[in-house]
User: Fold this.
Amino acid sequence: MAKLGYFPGCSLHASAHELDDSTKALAFRLGVELTEIPDWTCCGATAAHSVNRLLSVSLPARNLSLAVTAGLDTIMAPCAACFNRLAVARHELMKHEALRKQVERIIERPLDRIPQVHSVLSWLLAEVEKGTDWVKVDLSGMKVACYYGCLLLRPPSVIVFDDPEQPVSMETIVKAVGVEPVDWHCRLRCCGAGFSVSRTGIVLRLVREILSDARDAGADAVVVGCPMCHSNLDLRQKAAVERDAGMPILFLPQLLGLAAGCGARELGLLDHMVDTQGLLGKIPVGKV
Amino acid sequence: MAKIGVFVCHCGENIGRTVDCAEVARRAMDLPGVIHAVDYKYMCSDPGQRWIIDAVREKGLDGVVVASCSPHMHEKTFREAVAAAGLNPFLCEMANIREHCSWVHENRMQATDKAADLVRIMVEKVKRNRPLQPIKVPVTKRALVIGGGIAGIQTALDIANAGVEVVLVEKEPSIGGHMAQLSETFPTLDCSQCIMTPRMVEVRQHPRIQLYTYSEVDSVDGYIGNFTVKIRKKARSVDLDKCTGCGVCTTKCPVKGIPNQFDRGLGTRRAIYVPFPQAVPNVPVIDRERCRYFQTGKCGVCAKVCQADAVNYEQTDEMVEESVGAIVVATGFELYDVGQGMEEGHRGYGEYGYGQDPDIIDGLQFERLASASGPTSGEIRRPSDGKVPERVVFIQCVGSRDEAKGISYCSKICCMYTAKHAILFKHKVHHGQAYIFYMDVRAGGKGYEEFVRRAVEEDGALYVRGRVSEVVRRKDKLLVRGADTLMGRPVQIEADMVVLATAVKPQPGIEALAQKLRTSYDDYHFFKEAHPKLRPVESSSAGIFLAGACQAPRDIPDSVAMASAAASKVLGLFGAKELEREPIVARVNEVTCVGCFQCEKVCAYGAIERKEIRDRKGQLIKVVARVNEGVCQGCGTCQATCPSKSVELEGFTDEEIFAEINAVPVPS
Amino acid sequence: MRTLDLSRTSDGISDKLKRICGEAVERCYQCGKCTAGCPVAEDMDMPANQVIRLVQLGQGELALESEAIWLCLGCETCTARCPREVDLAGIMDALRELSMERNPAKAARKIRAFHQAFLDQIKLFGRVPEFALIGEYKLRSWAFFQDVLDAPTMAKKGKIKLMPQKVKGASEVRRIFKRCMEESARREK
Assistant:
């Protein structure tokens, strides 16, 4: 079994546990062994880089060092924010020797080797390129809006595996399991991020725009790669849109998990605020 | 015994304040071989030069050292003075005690010592200098112009009208370049083709212009005054001499709908086509990759309907050789492709959707829409559905002034042509509104500022100061998200069409031509001028001149002016019977040369030739190197490379240089 | 709107900024592309390009007092599209860092309170238990009644975990915090 370091991040154990459940279920079907980085701590998310630059590099650096110590030379963080902080920290540490030495002192751990950092996008893109014989359920007919959000592809100097303005990785992944990605325009529009609680009005405005574009494009669901995006689009959907018919918001591993034949409960699909039963009812349960 | 004269200049206060010039002259008199040493306030002045001339004559000096400024400044002055006195000018050297001494030191005592040392070094060199004569090179009085746009056309006409033969090579099937694609030109709004086509016809009919269209330069050999150029005439598949230009073939060809390059993809053509109605020559060409006959062997309709029997499928590329004395490069520009055809190293503009959405076009495409001979007969209609757009957003600086995704420089012409587009749009769509997102409006030419004001005040163009972040399709409109930095607010516009003013770049693949010509290009691959201020139409290579936008983004009046300037350089070159060149060239000692040809490998100018040395019976003894005096630029690389010390630069022989080195004082 | 006195070329903010994030504000030529793409530009008291303009004019203190720097989402759209490759998101971070010593603009209080609550949780537990985060945020911001109605549904779906996990690295993380604050303060001297 291929070994992959796993950084769940704080929200995956609580409000975004569906992402944790589905990632693990999918990884099993893909034959990937996820090894959680022992004793990992918070990456600092938005709060750390908003307040202190040194802290914003040191907190992720601790986790990068722990991974190497545990023998993991590649790690994956399903949460887009965690991925972004880890990837940016890696980039800064590799670029600036003086910073690396300073952070080594601060975290009291070695940084001579730094693991590769994958997002759920780059990880799954590599997986589907290897082959799709793990796909057991025919999802053709389902149309989804691939929502990248901000942090999976930016800053372009750090995250280089896809085009930052016209990305194709998520579309490639969903097409590989027979799902049709719709052509829509809010793919990279920010959802409002961490303002969910402190400035809810802004989030509602941004979410409204994203969801109406997805609806106009004919999507059955919106696929996301970030717990923050999910929370804003799912938890806040009722307040933003004031409609009965909801737009289900799926995590990318949940969608692929469905294709792999996982059950809805296993993937956490029954724990969303916006009902997914309607969508699940349309999927024919059958072999490919 | 040598009779050297030393002349030390004060250069006013420039040298005199830091160096004790009188002392330097005194010490020079103690040097072996120096019989005359004086100092003076301004050696380069008339009285100063007079002193030198008189001293040479009266004392019979056989060598002169002028200790003053850099040779870049006055070597020519002093050598001419010395020549006027009857002494070979190459027996006069300069010791730079200004840029290399007084300008970079402060301590008077040490600077004076150094100046005296510099004088001694040059005295030792001059004792070993040999008299040299300028080299005379014959000149072929014919010119080659590469590129048949407005600059190439102007150059060719100017040279030909002066009585000199010109060969004009153009890679497209017709001359005219980008100017032929324009609708109207700023600031007069003249119809572009109306003012240009008379010139194009003049070129075609001129008795002294040999026009090769649909042709490219294949190779260039030789040197200034004596170039041999091989030109590839690509196979048109139509006989130029037989074709009458009736155009029937272009209407009968069954292969239709090919995106037309002249209309930049907005219009279509057939497999046999004339690029545009006013093409010169008005002879069609067959696109063999799309032609049914060439791809499948079937069809042949054009040959059948041609009354003049001009279609010739058997035609092949033909090579011709021309001898010329000067070359003018006028290859023009191309617009930066911000869409799918992205060049390596550029990130492109995915956020503007060019290439993804048909209603997002570039400036030249808008010209074709506006042009009466264009795909919409001059009506502004958007490509997606042919509707007349009411709100058009023009975005400036797409690719320009943008080192993140494009190039750092300003493309110069876009502010003006965008103002023009706004005016044309308003003239054709009376109820339309043009919006222009800009950073700065650059309108420096004659009548240019007034033209921009006209766009604003008479034709209602709304200029919004700020860049655009993204353009997204919203059903049948394009949502443009920009900013007005003057108000400090984000703005948005629902537009019907968006026009991007994309950056001006050199022709793609121009590097290959530059290499054939052995001439330099800059970081952006524009041809490099010899000096940015004072020699803008000469390239870095002797005998090769530059005209138009191939050297930098340029509008039509400047291109035409530069073209005439290049022509005058060519005519100046041809004015003399022979070319005189400075004799600072390399010479091979054929006795010691072993024929290893390391020099040939390192010569950047291709000046090393091979010479066979034969005995009386005609048998080959050895092959040695020989320097072509016409091409050699005197860089000295061969001299440094030669393992047997068989090649030396006249005026900088090993003996002379070692004399200088040995004269440098060794600290005790 | 009072006149800005530019006789004094700089209040030192641009140098401090450069020491934190390495960016040179002189590179910005005020094209406004950042403002054009900013999702919260319409909510800011001054848009992104004007925040940098203040620093360019030597009036960085005014930028530190703005609400705008706290409204920045950190979405990095500006950085991704800036034609001069100015990392504006990084500059916003650095301005926030510099403004921590001051009282926040009234409108930004809630946002700062959220960040501080978040960081406090990391210091205490090494990871952020969301229930405790929301609790502390409410205390700091007095937004007691917000989202209360959603709580039971969220709990049923397993989205609220009451007990924080035990993480050994918490004490290490506390030391990291302390050292970062000390080294940042030392840099400013």
